[in-house]
Design goal:
Layout (H helix, E strand, L loop, with lengths): L2 E7 L4 E8 L1 H4 L2 H15 L9 E7 L2 E7 L4 E2 H5 L6 H20 L12 E4 L2 E4 L42 H4 L6 H17 L9 H10 L5 H4 L5 H10 L13
Antiparallel strand pairs: 1-2, 2-4, 3-4, 5-6, 6-7
Length: about 250
């Protein structure tokens, strides 16, 4: 929803990233709220694997965030070239889990974890885009099958399902309240893709993707990547449990 530019902070002499919400989008209350929500969430989350927010502002009718400038590539770009080595899966997976744990401990649910929202840098992963993060559980509606469209890339739809279909948990698709376990399901989807080089749930339309998440299990990792350690496959399978009550919330 925003435009991102590389820029230089002339006061502190450093490279930064400027995320701008153009004036024609600022008039949309929902998009403006997402933009402000991202700023509020990131400002409370200081962690080595979460992108740093330096400043916020408004100039000539355009709202903007000043963010840490990151060199590297997105995890999405990397997995499109094929599976990652096991050591990298374990390293990056642990770092993503640490970042999510930090967010959850501070009461935030990311709700849009996907490879394109993870940057790979020399210092490790950086979790990006908290525009859909919520400080409290919220409900979402379910898109009708008549609105389904053919797609070959992840879909983020405004107003109906908030998040990206291919990485959303069953409870989100059913319109139930999302909680930290919903992010764990998304993490399982990302880990599966890192190990196998393919998405856990696929389909030629949003309706088919939703049906796959709700009713089918992804192909066993061992059939696609035979050298994957069994404990890693068990971990991914647990993350992808369709009944979130299989995972106990923190403190229970």
């Amino acid at each position: 929803m925003g435009e991102v530019y590389r820029a230089r902070d002339t006061r502190l002499n450093r490279e930064v990233a400027i995320k701008v919400l153009p004036e024609h989008l600022s008039s949309n209350p929902e998009l403006r709220e997402r933009f402000e929500r991202e700023a509020r969430a990131i400002s409370k989350l200081s962690h080595p694997h979460i992108c740093v927010l330096y400043d916020i502002g408004k100039q000539d009718g355009a709202d903007f965030l000043v963010l840490e400038y990151l060199e590297g590539e997105t995890l999405g770009a990397r997995v499109r070239r094929g599976p990652l080595p096991t050591d990298q899966v374990l390293k990056y997976g642990a770092q993503m889990a640490e970042a999510l744990d930090k967010a959850h401990r501070h009461g935030f649910i990311h709700r849009d974890l996907k490879p394109d929202n993870v940057m790979l840098t020399k210092s490790g992963v950086k979790l990006l885009d908290f525009g859909l993060a919520k400080p409290v559980p919220g409900t979402v509606g379910v898109a009708s099958s008549s609105a389904a469209t053919v797609t070959h890339s992840p879909l983020t739809t405004e107003g109906t399902l908030v998040g990206t279909f291919q990485y959303m948990s069953p409870e989100q698709l059913e319109g139930q309240e999302a909680d930290a376990r919903s992010d764990i399901f998304g993490l399982g989807c990302v880990l599966y893709e890192m190990v196998t080089g393919r998405r856990a749930f696929e389909g030629k339309s949003t309706a088919k993707v939703v049906a796959a998440i709700m009713t089918t299990e992804p192909p066993p990792i061992a059939t696609l990547s035979p050298l994957t350690p069994a404990p890693l496959e068990r971990l991914v399978k647990k993350c992808l449990a369709k009944d979130r009550f299989y995972l106990k919330p923190r403190g229970q």
